[in-house]
């Protein structure tokens, strides 16, 4: 037995342990025991993924009696990378769950589903044939659905969220199944190695590509298949949302990579354009919705759509440039997309865990009622801040490295040796750069709002005033996540090299480690060495800071409380900026896209026209795609349903008549 | 001697079967229908007996006795017993007698047309009579569709079952004893269960009009 096989068997064993444990252990110890087992299960995933990433060999075969290729689990390097990333998020989520899971989310069902969810997610990248891929895909989906059900008894909105999630999951499963079926019909096998023999120029390949893209895009929360995200993630407990938004979306990206890198490499240019369009649209729409959202979890959920959009944009750029023979830039774009996927997993998991910590301490997710948590929850504030910097793609975080690399690839992409590679590329690349620039700006605004409103200033509600820091185990999980964000940002070199080796052998990006673990994309002459940069900056800044401190000590500080309150301290918390007011200019600028509905209600004092007792303002931003695209479809389906009920009215006579008429018709047809 | 009257006997029995089926569509009274069903059971038993004598198989003759006991005596007795024990309501079918008889004629023609295609190569006496069985199946179905009361529906169901049995005996010369035993007991069981249901319906709603059964309860 090789190490890889042992790793996968270990995961199966730990799953069995966790499930039996969850059923047997009593309420008091359940979260601790099963949370630890889930963390171990995910840790086994990290080890297995690492072995696969560094070229470990081995396979598990699931025997079946069905007439098709055998079900073989054998992760390749790319699968190993994805398995590692999702397992790392799984470890964080499990550790956090030990502390945060209470009442409903610490039930038997919840912990069993958590273990099953993690297991399914970790083994999807190990599949080497259609059937085992879909099997683990469905295990993952079922596990996550059951996890979401945790709070259905206490919150009415959970049911509708679950319906949306299930419907959209089934829709994407259908697309994936249909796409694979087209490929299988074209080649006659179900193994991925057999499917890879399809000619990417054939119409079957194109049909399969579009279907698979829709299927995997649904899991990766791309527009227009993202509608479940802003409904489902706010309902999920913090650690579950982290696992879904930090890890499960990566499985969607893995699916797209499987198509573009393994099964159908070197596809035609229009595939790339399609991917870029879908990705760019998702990025813009996602960040726009996130920037005006005032519910913290909705904000984070939409931000996931944005990041996944950027990943798909990078992937599309790589396909497009490869079709135009700009291989170096194409490979750099691919590496950038993967870097973004990894860094997104780190910062989004941490952000959702931070949101979970806030929810645990205050029970409030509306930013307009938070505030002042920085001094009350310092650990959460610091880790959330680091992760928010990552999400806003600021330097020394992982998000910055990924977006920098993507921009480099796009800028250098449209020309090779000074020659324009193609008209499509020379139009698409600048547009993509513009999209990323706008996205990055809005992302900065969004996360300044998320961090600033939640953690700075004064508490805006009693609940926020009474917030307490979360238990140690949750802090450990938050700190690990934040360290991941910073570490990936400071030493991106080894990760980029590992990614470059993972996409091989069909693709061979020329990426090296340079300086203090910096990254050097040789194909496009781009070098980034954050650690050296930080060290140099520190060398320059330290004397300046010392001088500043020295001068500050000589001049004692004047203490006047709240000078901006006109000398008084009667500033009420309600006078501060809120999330809604902060986003107001954006809502005005993007009025046509966001279509907010505003409701202002003024109550006057007595008969006076001029004295106002109270002003009530309510603003809600609906999802345009949901109201304009899904609602009409649902209404049509409902009308059809009402019609169908006339035929199916429950009368036994009517059903008997149907069978009688059917029998007569068969007889008449036979006798003709 | 028997060979010469065999076709006539077969014709007589099947004629009785078709006639009773048609009369059941015509009559609305539940008790009359039950009596007709009993006559039909006797006719079916006679048909089986004739086939048994012709083929010289004792097993088929035993089956005919079984048919007589179950379909000629047992089932009608159960039905009549239950019907007399409760208040009688006459049937108000969805089809008036004239239209019903016309439909019966059409269905019989259709079954002859179908059978002529299906049994084109078979020129034996019993194959000639097989369309009657098919016609009985269709008439039974017609009764099921047009009757409102649970009891009358049950009679339609039994006519349908008789039709199937007729086709089976005429085309394959009878079924093995054990199979027939099993089928008969099944039918008996179904009838008893349905009658219990009908009784409960009557207790609950005051009648057995199945048009009222439209909604499912949780």
From TrEMBL, chain A:
Membrane topology type: Multi-pass membrane protein
Give the UniProt keywords, A-Z: Cell membrane, Membrane, Oxidoreductase, Transmembrane, Transmembrane helix
Known Pfam families for this protein?
Answer: Proton_antipo_M
Q: Does the keyword Transmembrane helix apply?
A: yes
Its predominant location is membrane
Residue ranges spanning the membrane: these are 6-26, 33-54, 78-98, 110-127, 162-186, 206-228, 240-264, 270-288, 300-321, 333-358, 379-407, 427-457, 478-503, 533-552, 655-671
Q: Which residues form the NADH:quinone oxidoreductase/Mrp antiporter transmembrane domain?
A: 127-426
The record ties this protein, via InterPro entries, to:
ComplexI-like_HydComp, ND/Mrp_TM
Q: Where in the cell is it found?
A: Cell membrane; Membrane
Say yes or no: keyword Transmembrane present.
Answer: yes
The GO molecular function terms of this record are: oxidoreductase activity
Q: Name one GO cellular component term.
A: plasma membrane
**Name of protein:** Hydrogenase 4 subunit B
**Protein species of origin:** Cryobacterium shii
From TrEMBL, chain B:
Chief location category: membrane
| InterPro entries hit by this protein | HyfE-like (IPR038730)
Keywords from UniProt, A to Z, are: Cell membrane, Membrane, Transmembrane, Transmembrane helix
| Keyword Transmembrane (UniProt) | yes
Q: Does the keyword Cell membrane apply?
A: yes
Q: Where in the cell is it found?
A: Cell membrane
Q: How does this protein sit in the membrane?
A: Multi-pass membrane protein
Where exactly are the transmembrane stretches of this chain?
Answer: 6-26, 33-53, 59-79, 99-119, 125-145, 154-171, 177-198
Entry GO terms, CC: plasma membrane
Name assigned to this protein: Hydrogenase
């Amino acid at each position: 037995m090789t190490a890889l096989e042992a790793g996968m068997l270990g995961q199966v064993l730990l799953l069995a342990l966790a499930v039996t444990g969850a059923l047997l252990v009593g309420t008091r110890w359940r979260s601790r025991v099963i949370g630890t087992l889930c963390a171990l299960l995910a840790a086994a995933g990290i080890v297995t993924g690492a072995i696969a990433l560094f070229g470990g060999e081995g396979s598990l075969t699931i025997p079946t009696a069905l007439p098709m290729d055998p079900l073989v689990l054998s992760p390749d390097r790319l699968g190993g990378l994805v398995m590692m990333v999702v397992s790392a998020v799984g470890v964080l989520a499990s550790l956090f769950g030990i502390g945060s899971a209470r009442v409903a989310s610490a039930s038997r069902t919840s912990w069993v589903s958590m273990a099953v969810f993690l297991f399914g997610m970790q083994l999807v990248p190990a599949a080497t044939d259609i059937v085992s891929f879909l099997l683990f895909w469905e295990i993952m989906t079922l596990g996550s659905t059951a996890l979401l059900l945790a709070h259905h008894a206490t919150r009415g909105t959970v049911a509708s969220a679950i319906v949306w999630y299930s419907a959209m999951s089934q829709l994407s499963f259908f697309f994936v199944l249909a796409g694979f079926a087209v490929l299988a019909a074209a080649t006659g096998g179900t193994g991925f190695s057999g499917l890879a023999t399809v000619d990417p120029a054939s119409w079957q390949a194109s049909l399969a590509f579009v279907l698979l893209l829709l299927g995997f895009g649904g899991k990766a929360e791309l527009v227009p298949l993202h509608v479940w995200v802003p409904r489902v993630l706010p309902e999920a407990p913090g650690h579950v949302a982290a696992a879904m938004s930090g890890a499960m979306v990566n499985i969607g990206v893995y699916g797209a990579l499987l198509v573009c890198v393994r099964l159908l490499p070197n596809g035609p240019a229009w595939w790339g354009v399609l991917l870029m369009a879908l990705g760019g649209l998702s990025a813009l729409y996602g960040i726009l919705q996130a920037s005006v959202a005032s519910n913290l979890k909705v904000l984070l959920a939409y931000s996931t759509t944005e990041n996944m959009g950027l990943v798909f944009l990078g992937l599309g750029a790589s396909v497009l440039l490869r079709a135009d023979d700009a291989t170096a830039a194409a490979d750099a774009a691919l590496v950038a997309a993967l870097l973004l996927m990894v860094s997104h997993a780190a910062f989004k998991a941490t952000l959702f865990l931070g949101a979970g910590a806030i929810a645990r301490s205050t029970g409030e997710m509306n930013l307009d009622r938070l505030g002042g948590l920085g001094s009350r929850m310092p650990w959460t504030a610091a880790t959330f801040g680091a992760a928010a910097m990552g999400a806003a793609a600021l330097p020394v975080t992982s998000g910055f490295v990924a977006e920098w690399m993507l921009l480099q690839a796009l800028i250098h992409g449209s020309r090779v040796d000074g020659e324009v590679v193609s008209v499509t590329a020379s139009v698409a690349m600048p547009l993509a750069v513009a999209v990323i620039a706008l996205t990055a700006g809005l992302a900065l605004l969004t996360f300044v709002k998320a961090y600033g409103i939640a953690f700075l200033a004064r508490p805006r509600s009693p609940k926020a005033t009474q917030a307490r820091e979360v238990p140690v185990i949750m802090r450990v999980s938050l700190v690990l996540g934040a360290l991941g964000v910073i570490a990936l940002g400071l030493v991106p070199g080894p990760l980029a090299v590992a990614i470059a080796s993972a996409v091989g052998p069909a693709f061979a990006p020329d990426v090296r480690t340079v300086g203090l673990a910096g990254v050097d994309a040789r194909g496009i002459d781009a070098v980034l060495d954050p650690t050296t940069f930080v060290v140099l900056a520190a060398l320059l800044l330290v004397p300046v800071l010392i001088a500043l401190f020295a001068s500050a000590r000589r001049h004692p500080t004047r203490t006047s409380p709240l000078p901006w309150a006109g000398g008084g301290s009667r500033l009420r918390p309600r006078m501060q900026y809120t999330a809604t007011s902060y986003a107001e200019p954006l809502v005005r600028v993007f009025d046509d896209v966001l279509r907010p509905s505003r409701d202002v209600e003024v109550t006057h004092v007595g008969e006076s026209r001029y004295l106002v007792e109270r002003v009530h303002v309510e603003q809600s931003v609906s999802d345009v795609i949901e109201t304009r695209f899904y609602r009409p479809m649902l209404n049509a389906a409902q009308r059809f349903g009402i019609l169908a009920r006339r035929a199916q009215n429950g009368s036994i006579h009517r059903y008997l008549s149907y069978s009688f008429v059917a029998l007569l018709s068969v007889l008449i047809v036979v006798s003709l | 001697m028997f060979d010469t009257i065999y076709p006539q006997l077969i014709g007589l029995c099947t004629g009785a079967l078709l006639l009773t089926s048609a009369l059941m569509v015509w009559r609305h009274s539940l008790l009359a229908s039950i009596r007709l069903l009993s006559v039909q059971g006797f006719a079916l038993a006679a048909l089986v007996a004739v086939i048994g004598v012709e083929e010289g198989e004792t097993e088929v003759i035993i089956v005919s006795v079984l048919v007589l006991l179950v379909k000629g005596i047992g089932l009608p007795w159960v039905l009549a017993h239950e019907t007399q024990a409760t208040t009688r309501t006459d049937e108000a079918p969805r089809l008036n007698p004239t239209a019903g008889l016309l439909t019966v004629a059409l269905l019989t023609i259709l079954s002859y047309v179908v059978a002529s295609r299906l049994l084109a190569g078979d020129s034996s006496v019993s194959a000639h009579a097989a369309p009657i069985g098919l016609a009985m199946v269709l008439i039974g179905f017609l009764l099921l569709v047009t009757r409102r009361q649970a009891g009358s529906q049950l009679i339609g169901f039994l006519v349908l079952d008789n039709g199937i049995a007729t086709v089976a005996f005429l085309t394959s010369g009878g079924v093995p004893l054990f199979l027939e035993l099993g089928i008969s007991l099944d039918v008996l069981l179904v009838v008893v269960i349905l009658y219990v249901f009908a009784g409960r319906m009557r207790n609950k709603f005051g009648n057995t009009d199945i048009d009222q059964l439209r909604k499912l309860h949780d």
